[in-house]
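Exercise 7b. Backbone tokens:
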């Protein structure tokens, strides 16, 4: 048996590779990991949320991105592909990634839920501009919100049909029926 050394790649090699690849990869300090595809419920929920955010952010400094926009965390040297991100920093103008999101949303998938809940939660909380991190279940009507409050994070669980997700960074209320439209009955 031969032993092969796995060498880290540079950020530039990673970014160039993403432009040429048919598969998306996340980058963790020189290491690259292929991403799993998303199913129907995941896509519908993501689109419901992104559409609502885009409607509210039109004609403002806020920009909504879905699925293919990376977030770069320089302090950790990581690039992730959040399901949805919102930025309002005019200097956050890189074509292929953003560094200063105010909101990140991840729709939980069985293959990524542990990473979204642990690794990404801690990594995203290191982003100084991030005000809110939202986790949305695709298996049940449930939304988890982490909101920055000064130097601490507050946690909110929404799991009733009457619950409303309030996003401070856009001053936007989204009811559960909008989030889960065409996925779960909310009546």
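Sequence design result:
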């Amino acid at each position: 048996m031969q032993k092969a050394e796995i060498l880290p790649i540079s950020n530039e090699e990673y970014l160039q590779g993403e432009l040429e690849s048919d598969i998306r990869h996340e980058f963790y300090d020189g290491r690259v990991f292929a991403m799993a595809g998303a199913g129907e419920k995941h896509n519908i929920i993501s689109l419901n949320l992104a559409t609502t955010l885009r409607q509210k952010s039109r004609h403002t400094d806020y920009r909504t991105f879905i699925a293919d926009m990376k977030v770069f965390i320089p302090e950790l040297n990581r690039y992730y592909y959040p399901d949805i991100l919102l930025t309002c920093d005019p200097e956050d103008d890189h074509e292929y990634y953003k560094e200063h999101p105010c909101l990140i949303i991840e729709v939980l998938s069985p293959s990524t839920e542990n990473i979204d809940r642990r690794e990404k939660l801690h990594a995203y909380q290191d982003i100084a501009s991030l005000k809110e991190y939202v986790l949305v279940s695709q298996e049940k009507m449930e939304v988890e919100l982490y909101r920055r409050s000064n130097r601490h994070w507050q946690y909110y669980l929404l799991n009733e049909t009457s619950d409303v997700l309030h996003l401070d960074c856009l001053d936007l209320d989204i009811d559960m029926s909008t989030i889960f439209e065409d996925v779960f009955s909310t009546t």
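Instructor comment: The helical segments are 11-20, 40-57, 113-117, 119-124, 176-179. The chain has a mean pLDDT of 92.
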